[in-house]
Amino acid sequence: MQYQFILLFLFFGLTSVFAQEKKQIIVNDTLKSQEIDPLRPAKAAFYSAILPGLGQIYNKKYWKLPLVYGAIGVSTYFYIDSQKNYNIYRDEYKSRLAGNISSSEYLANLSESQLISAQKQFQRNRDLSAFFIVGFYVLNIIDANIDAALSQFNVSEKLAFKPVMNFRNENLKSDFGFACTYSF
């Protein structure tokens, strides 16, 4: 008798679920197809190679311009300053070897080994600054290329990578993981 009540309950419960009608709402497709330009990354990299920052302008990332010119400009400043100081110490060392007397009190108090050491230090700083100028220039080109490629990447809400918490009733354990879902 008890089983009959359960079967009747399940029968009426399942039929009531299937008896409900779902209203179909059809919405106009608002998805606009965006044409992908395969040469966009190459154009952005080319523009940045011609003039630093031009690729960022092409990608409409104007906020990156001060970063590009700041990095290259500061490196250029240190290059010029180190070259100027290197020339001062080198000229002083050469004039001492020629037997001339220094016009600067500070340089006159330095020994020849100190002049050579200062020359090496400023030469090293100059070379590092040149390395940074080239590095920031190349980084500018790479940034424009990658940004142009990623600007065409589909980031709609239909495609998602989300964390999922799955609770299993059989063994009362919960599993944590990630799921890649595509909704229609």
- Write down the Rg: 35 Å
Overall 3D form: elongated
Percent helix range: 55-70%
Number of strands: 2
Work out the strand percent: 5-15%
If strands are numbered along the chain, what order do they take across the biggest sheet? 1-2
Order of helices and strands: HHHHHHEE
Low-confidence parts, pLDDT < 50 over ≥5 residues?
Answer: none
Quick one: biggest sheet?
Answer: 2 strands, antiparallel
pLDDT averaged residue by residue = 83
- Structural class, from helix and strand content? mainly alpha
How far apart are the termini?
46 Å
Give the helix tally: 6
Strand and helix layout:
Elements: H1 2-19, H2 40-50, H3 54-58, H4 65-98, H5 105-108, H6 112-151, E1 159-168, E2 173-182
Antiparallel strand pairs: 1-2
Compose a concise summary of this entry.
With 184 residues, this protein is mainly alpha-helical. Helix content is 61%, strand content 11%.
Describe what this molecule looks like in 3D.
By secondary structure, this protein is mainly α. It contains six helices and two strands. A two-stranded antiparallel ribbon has the order 1-2. Strand 1 (159-168) and strand 2 (173-182) form a beta hairpin. Helix 2 runs antiparallel to helix 6 and helix 4 (65-98) runs antiparallel to helix 6 (112-151). The mean pLDDT is 83.
